[in-house]
Amino acid sequence: MERRDFLKKSVLAGLTTGALFSIGGLNKLSAKGNSFRELGENEENASPYDLVAVKGGEPADMFDKAILSMGGMSAFIKKGQKVVVKPNIGWDVVPELAANTNPLLVKRIIEHCFKAGAKEVLVFDHTCDDWTKSYKSSGIEKAVKDAGGKMVPGNTEGYYHEKEITNGKKLKKDKVHEAILNADVFINVPVLKNHESAKLTISMKNLMGINWDRGFWHKNDLHQCIADFASQIKPHLNIVDAYNVMKKNGPRGVSADDVIMMKSLIVSRDMVAADAAAAKLFGLNPEDVKYIKIAHDMKVGRMDIDKLNINRIKM
Fold first, then answer.
1. pLDDT tens, position by position, 73-124
2. Considering 3, 15, 278, 287, which has the largest number of Cβ atoms within 10 A of its Cβ?
3. What residues make up the domain containing 159?
4. Domain with 32 in it: what CATH number?
5. Any idea what the Cα angle at residue 98 is, between residues 93 and 103, rounded to 5°?
6. CB 155: neighbour CB atoms within 10 A?
């Protein structure tokens, strides 16, 4: 990429990220409101923040700042627990195309998990491209192994087991990967990007990689199915990778010209809040992404992030 094109993209990214980071100053917003969040059993060191947004650093460094602000990984993981980290690894493309979660971020998350005392950390995705190629090309397989984690496959139906979706309107039941069902802690790590069908891929959309029959979702109101599933399967922590962001031609992408550098990270227990903040970062209103509004109305979480307690960190 020509230097002038890179600079142009970086300036564009800076203008977009301002939508999230300018509200109430760069450091923190203290309009608390009554935050909606599922309180897990590991919250004895719970953070006062509903959401943390970090800007201007490298993936690992931004996560270090964010997780410290959330009370440290020990607020989510206790010694001896089994952890599943679920990035987006759907595509057989290199990290620079930003179709998959940044491998440097995944590596640092796993390191924090083990430091908090995790017994094992499993990583997988129900990929769109060939799973062995996607795991390798994304750089995530190497990152996971280097951090001491274990990659597990998600490519055959035998790994998935039926679970009732209690409050589902379109989705009444679904098959969920056994790694999720057997985990003590589930950490959801989507990459923020454009998606031709869902408008954006973020936290709730990333859960499509833990179920078996994605085709049903696409044929039966994709947005409602995303919200239905999110009402039943709630990660303990959501970490949105917005270091490099695919602004068009998602979800797979075409070239590096589709990607802009935003150097941002969003962390929250609440999927809806994380997705609402990420939508603003992308340059959209949360209600512009239909499944965010549906999930908010279903009380899966909150998209009214102006009423949440947010820590904004600029590096």
1. 999 999 999 999 999 999 999 999 999 999 999 999 999 999 999 999 999 9
2. 278
3. 3-314
4. 3.40.50.11440
5. 80
6. 14
